[in-house]
Amino acid sequence: MKTITFDTVKDAVCRMCGQAACDLPPDVLAALKSAAGREKNVLAQGFFEQYLQNSDIAARERLPLCQDTGFAVFFVSMGSEVMIDGGTLREAINAGVRDGYKKYYLRKSIVADPLFDRKNTFDNTPAVIHLEQVPGDQLHIVLAPKGGGSENMSALKMLKPSEGRNGVVDFVVNSVISAGGNPCPPTIVGVGIGGTMEYAAFMAKKALLREVGKASSDPRYAELEAEILQKINASGVGSQGLGGDITALAVHIEFHPCHLASLPVAVNLNCHAARHAEVIL
């Protein structure tokens, strides 16, 4: 059995909060540079220049890429041979978020109650934690801060199985077009197909963690990703919703078996500052 202390997890999460807020991942940066070279709209070209300048300033001066430093969302794979000493994993992650958002002067955006008591918790907790147990003795933690602008453009539809491929394509493309400039495009489009209502939404968000532009390992879904991306970019929504050739940098699809009477489809968007950080303990 491998023992990892509460403070080890807490301190790692604290550092990840600063890293995710200030450092655009290399794959996202590469995707932005590639898109900038393909963009022909003059206004959109200017936006791409600003995205790249912003990334450079944020990394150099240790400033957040965006003022909305997001809801702290974690994807955790915990080895079956791992034990946390000194408290629970959930407590350690929340303690790390609490410390990280304070240490790095990140905006705290979480309200204690969604409807009746919308008072700020003042430490950006509680985090959302998706925990999976896997074989082995490693603890793999991924932090993907989620801003309100892109998260508010999420969409879910329980399609009829008879709507099939065309129904999926139309729903995803129309969801992105309807979002317009709200999620600060160019976006990365996460799509979850199958499972149940809540699992489709989970897959859509998890799909955003894939290396930008890396196609699905299933050639059928890789082809579907390419078709949806082409149609989204043909829409002309463009950067910040003000027109252009590039509305999305990539479409990533995750899928799961589902009930014979169902075809759940969920869409989750990341803005062009698609932030994440990870650590293996």
Key descriptive features of the protein:
Dihydrodipicolinate Reductase, domain 2; alpha/beta; 281 residues; 60s Ribosomal Protein L30, Chain: A; globular
How would the blueprint of this fold be written?
Elements: E1 2-5, H1 6-22, H2 26-38, H3 42-61, E2 73-79, E3 82-85, H4 89-103, E4 128-134, E5 139-143, H5 148-151, E6 155-159, H6 164-179, E7 187-195, H7 197-207, H8 219-233, E8 248-258, E9 263-270, E10 277-280
Parallel strand pairs: 1-3, 2-4, 7-8
Antiparallel strand pairs: 2-5, 5-10, 6-9, 7-9
Name of the top-level CATH class of the largest domain: Alpha Beta
Helix content: 25-40%
| Quaternary structure type | single chain
Which sequence of SSEs, written as H and E, runs from N to C? Answer: EHHHEEHEEHEHEHHEEE
Main-sheet strand order equals 4-2-5-10
How much of the residues is beta strand, in percent?
15-25%
Overall shape: globular
What is CATH's topology name of the largest domain? Answer: 60s Ribosomal Protein L30, Chain: A
Q: Into how many domains do the coordinates divide?
A: 2
How far is it from the N-terminal to the C-terminal residue, by CA? Answer: 14 Å
Number of strands: 10
Radius of gyration: 19 Å
CATH level-two architecture of the largest domain: 2-Layer Sandwich
Total number of helices: 8
Major sheet attributes? 4 strands, mixed
Structural class: alpha/beta
Please, what is the average pLDDT?
97
Unreliable residue runs: none
Description:
The chain is an alpha/beta fold and 281 residues long. The chain has two domains: 2-19 and 65-145, Dihydrodipicolinate Reductase, domain 2 (2-Layer Sandwich); 148-274, 60s Ribosomal Protein L30, Chain: A (2-Layer Sandwich), CATH 3.30.1330. 40% of the residues lie in helices and 23% in strands. The chain contains eight helices and ten strands. Strands 4-2-5-10 form a four-stranded mixed β-sheet, covered by helices on one side. It is globular. The model has no long low-confidence stretch (mean pLDDT 97).
